Each structure stands twice: as structure tokens, then as C-alpha cells.
Description:
The protein is an alpha/beta fold. The protein has helices spanning about 10-20, 45-60, 70-85, 100-115, 130-135, 155-165, 190-200, 220-230, 260-280, 285-295, 300-330, 335-340, 350-360, 380-395; strands spanning about 30, 90-100, 120-125, 140-145, 145-150, 155, 170-175, 205-210, 235-240, 250-260, 345, 365, 370-375.
Amino acid sequence: MFEVLQPSPPDKILALMAAFREDERAGKIDLGVGVYKDAQGVTPIMGAVKAAEARLHQAQTTKTYVGPAGDKDFAAAMGDLVLAGAVPSERLRGCQAPGGSGALRVLAELIARAKPGAKVWVSDPTWPNHGPILAACRLEVEVYPYFDPASGGLRFDEMMAALGKANAGDVVLLHGCCHNPTGADLDIDQWGEVAKLFSQRGLVPFVDIAYQGFGGGLDEDAAGVRALAGELPELLIAASCSKNFAVYRERVGAAMIVACDAAQADATFSQMLSIARANYSMPPDHGAALVRDVLADAGLRTEWEAELKATRERMIALRGGLAEALRRQSNSDRFDFLARQRGMFSQLGLTRDEIIRLREEFAIYAVEDSRINIAGLPDDRLDEVAKAICAVIGG
């Protein structure tokens, strides 16, 4: 059987991680992998999470299965965190999933069950794993205009024109905040326009919110999805805790749906649990239990929100610092957009050859589409990074 199989093309980000590990040069810089790093280059465990873990260790009395829905209190807490009462609770259902990717897969399969071969629109560009997940569920993928590399902003009018031609029942995948890979987000007025268009055209929003709290704040970053929820009868949401709780390896996510009424919500939720059972049976418990306890305990939540605020403010400072350094080194405003964008990622607008030169000549690793992880920048080497960037674009 296996003799007919050919090697699968390597995942570019995972291949970049391997190449970085094998590079023996001192001072190498990893701007490829999407994890937050502090000023010492470490991806820390949040203090609130550590405290919750210590409490859990003392209080937990069993490791028995949690069921396909996972931790129901975690799912409820995530619904509150993302939607904050934007829809009546009887219309909202959610289950725990193995990370944001697991939530995306559950919801993509749910779409396929409801409408086999449905068309799902994704932004140009989008997170590289969106396409494979949708394709694995045999969904048709269509692309809508989104990012303008020349300005570092949005092609909003073109986006709206393209989606204005979508058919009723089409699904549109939107990044809730901190767009990956560009860092360019819709503002609240644009979210309102999107909600009205979707209502008029009968489109179904599928929101991937993986960085809540990394952009403008917990409520600010969820304002778009809440606007959709308040306007539309149906909504799918994949939420991740990997970044904002720094529980990457614990694989903590939530798959949520909003339906038009309680009966449809119940029927849809039963299908979600059937999908979960067939895919991974039960989600892992540990990370979700930590997130649940942090959100439920007033003291831990206050501590977590302060840590999240410090993380967000540091990334904003890094954006501003790199933009200033690039302005000095390039004597131009070409990279000023970095300071306006939010989240972990931005695309520099460099060519593939220039990105390869950055890696080979300066030991600075970035994805070949020129996406960089802002949170991977070393605070005290921004001028060095800027000089290297200017060197590869200037010669």
C-alpha cells in the first residue's frame, strides 16, 4: 500500500524552524516561528498560569476522560471572553478543542456536513494552514482581496466588492484581530460594513480569533466578532489560547457556533460533538483547566490581564522601534506601516531572494513571504536588524 505514496512537501514554517536550530552562528535571530519571546528571548510561562497550575496540582483528584465536549466551564468562559453577551446564551454553543487548529478543523467539518462542497472565502493572504484544513474537509476555497503591500493597509473596497458577488450560503473566513500574516486589521466601522453586507447577501462568517488581547485589548480585539454576532443569525468562531495565555504546547482552543435559535444551536452542537468524537474522541484537559481557573478567579484574572497588557505593550514598542530604525537606515517612510499594525506578525514586502539573503548573510530567519514575528525581535538589536534589511533591499 505505502509504495504509492510520495513524500509530502515540507511545511515551510516547520522547515524554517529546523534550519534555525541547525544554524551554529552566534547571534542568529528567529523571526519565523509564531511564539512570543520576552526580552531574554524566552517564551515564558505566565505567572497567573503557573499559579493556576500549582492549585490544580493540589486540587485535582482524577485524570479520567472529560468527554468530547471537553471542559464545559472552560467553553462557557471562552464564550464570555470572546462574545461578552453579544448574543443570548441560548443561541451560543461551544466545545473545547485541541488548539485553534483543532477548533478550525471541527468547524470546517461542520460546514461540510451542513453544506457539502461549500465555498469558503479566505483573505489574500491568510494563515498558511487555513487552506489545507479547508481542503481536507473537501470545501471549495475562494480568495478575496485583503492586503495592500504597497501601503501596508487594506484593500477594503476591493474586498467588499468581491464579497458582494458571493452567493447566499457562502462562508467567509475572517481574522478576528491581529491578522496573520500581515498585522493589518479591519477597524470597527469596517466591521460594521462587513456585518451589513453579510446580512444583505446571506453570507456566513467564520471567525478565527487567535490573538485576542494582543492588538488593542481584550474587548477592542473582540469588537469585530461581537458586531457580527449582533447582526447575523449564524456565526462560527475558532478561538485559541496558545498566544494570549502562552499555553502553546498544551493545545487549548474553543470551537463555538451562534445559531438562530436554541433548537438549531442544540442540533448543531450535537454534530460538533460527533465530529470531535470521530477525530480525537476527547480533547486534552490540562491546559483548558488552567485557562478556566485563571478566568474564574478574580485575582488570577487580574494578574493575567496585567501580564497580557505588558506583552501587548512590548510588541507595540517593538513595532515602533523597528519602524524608527528602518526609517533611519533607509532614509524613507517605506516601513512606517509596521508601527500602525498590530499583533505578532507583519509582512515586510521583501522578495523571496531578499529573505534568503537575510538568512544566509545575516542569520535572520523569516518566512519567505517576508512575514516576520514582531515578538521575536531582540529589543537591543533593532538597528542591527534594520541595517540587515536595508542591506538586502539595497544591493
